[in-house]
User: Fold these one by one.
Assistant:
Number 1:
Amino acid sequence: MFTYAPRPLLSSQLLRLSLLLVIWLGLFCWAGPVSAQFHFKDYGPHPRLTPPDAIASRSALLVDYQTGEVLYARNPDARFLPASTTKLMTALIVYEKLGGFNGSVTIQEADRAEPSNIPVVPGETISVDKLFHALLIESANDAARVLGRYVAGSNEAFVAMMNQRALAMGCFNTHFNNPNGLPAPTGTHFTSCSDLMRIFRAVLKYPEMSTIMSTKEYVISTASGTHYLRNHNRLLGVYPGMGPAKTGWTVASRHTYACAVTRNGHTLLLTLLDSPDKWLDAQILFNWGFAQVEAPPPAPSGAAQP
């Protein structure tokens, strides 16, 4: 005759151990979101060289700053949304019109902008110097509107100035709809990696702006309080030699980037547009690029081999 024998209960200690094992296996196997790939820390003197074609960006341009040689290009003249890399043109025009960071601006209601902002308060007066730091470190959209209006009289007049300057620079695949890169009607706001590179190089001619773009943190005080500006460039202070840069991102544009890295006295410039992960793409391209420019020259034909 069979009798029912209940399964013995696990001890509480064994249950805890089993639960910990399940949690550990889950964490070990979870790949994480795409953004977690930022932890691709291949920064040593001899990094793993992922082929440059492995990048996911739809457009890219890697250039030797000293010689102008193009080290890598993918769709460099194709038009894409620039997002906040737009602010490079804004900074360039305002800096040249004012001859630096001179003056102060009284804020108007029309200067407000979301989402990234100081925020400005209508009626307060803010120095151009503070606005430039907010523009290039925190990527403040309201700072872009304030500075543009200050030099042109209105937002519309400044946008016209931006488009005139783009044409004068030979940026024929660029058109602006606003000074900060916020979403605009389709077909009204775009650039290419080649054009963005021209604009970036023009900005880098001014050491004061390069210094700001290389600053990780900065504090300003305005009527809305004390603001701790933090650079959006996540590779600054992490990737060896990372220098001045301007980042950008919107849902439509995805990641955009203009950045410079200097290593052993050699500088490479990179522009990226429409990337799912600019941090990973930038590391791949800079690792590969520096391996090319730092490689020993080939031995002359007929020379004795060691």
Note: Confidence is low (pLDDT under 50) at residues 1-10, 20-39.
Number 2:
Amino acid sequence: MSDGRIDASSNLAVVRASERWYAVCCKPRQEAVAEENLLRQGYRTYLPRIRNTRRRAGQWIDKVEPLFPRYLFICVDPARHSTAPVRSTRGVSGLVRHCGLPAAVPEQVIEAIMQRADADSGLHRDNRPLFCAGDPIRLIEGPLAGMEGMFTEEDGERRVIVLLELMGKANKTRVNRDWVVPAA
């Protein structure tokens, strides 16, 4: 990439011997603003992102958000490019420091994060299931709304199988995944 952004599929992730990675602490929900402003100042940046599934307005949606909320990384040769302007950059709170000095992030850590990202999209994926077998659930919609039971397994992209007590015995029932929430 020519704009200074680093992604997991980029060859620009190669770091020269004198360059170091640093973690930048951003203001809440300002990671993209900070990244854009750091790029404008000539810094190489890496903002790892993850695709998560969240429940919003009664439906499960995919959302892309920072892998490390409030943090991104910059690659700098401290002998050639000062890090002083970073703390006054819009969207930035400051550099992560140790004993008063900017703390360098080992290159191996950055490489490991990049390698775990999807090669095509550059995004990380939250591979945890929405529910695990045996989790208590509650149905919030549909003809069985209000009933509580147990999650057993996923059945395709939009359906799940839950175990509900119906007519005096436990029954496996297929329902829309949007109707299921964790039991309180």
Note: The helical segments are 31-40, 107-115.
Number 3:
Amino acid sequence: MTLQQLRYFLETCRTGSFTAAADSLYVAQPSVAQQIRRLEQEVGVRLFVRTGRRLELTEAGETLKRNAERVIAALEDTEASLQGARNLTGGTASLGTFGIAQRYLVNDVVTSFVARHPDVTIRVVGQHSLEIVEQVRTGELEAGLVTLPVDQPSLQVEPVIADDIAYVALPGPDTERPITIERLAETRLIAWPAYGGWRDSIRRSLKSRAEAAGVELHAQVEVEHFESALDLAELGLGGTYLPRTISDSDDFPASLDTTPFDPPLAETYAFIRRRDHRLSPATAELVRLAREQMESHGHPIADG
């Protein structure tokens, strides 16, 4: 039993004759009649009986008609979905991003995507990298933009840029030259994000440096967002850290100074997805636009 046979069969049901079905399908009449005879041979029963000039369905033909309609409808729905995905005329694109990416990435990427593909639904989730990793791992999100490292063998990790990290505080001795981990341990540190704690990638790197240097690093103040850390630094409550992408932006507080770490400290951002999952065309396009936007910031990482 073939899809062609089912299509010829359903058109014959609709028109009531092989000739009318052939005209509707733009094929020769013998072709339709032959396919119906083959179909009857395969199922082992008569599907039509002739009553006057019209073909009428037998009981077996009625049963096949109901099932054939479901098969063809499902096929057409699938074809429409695939066509929509290829042409990005439907579907949903989903991407998780860490908090800072929301600041300098999401608006431009979403605006560009909507302008090109107005019929596609977009879902962009902004959370901590740890949460994004988990949601991609479980399939709640198709793809994510996170900070490395990612310790999940089931995920494919594609680094995209490296962003230098700077120390931020009110002007003074701490910002007059690059800051070492030993000097950082002597400052009043405003740490973020509070959710990730010392599992956060920047804080983990700082903690590792402190342990290697034999000094203890403590966060006197912990807040969730870097905006809060900057507000507190402006009040003179301590110093914090920030990717250069943010500290070099036009709206960075003029009252604060920055200085690099000694040795330099950088954070790597990467796209992630499940190894056993091919991205939908919509999400793949969203990731492509996000990659372009990311590479306009920081230092792009060459493939391989």
Note: The chain has two domains: 3-87, 92-304.
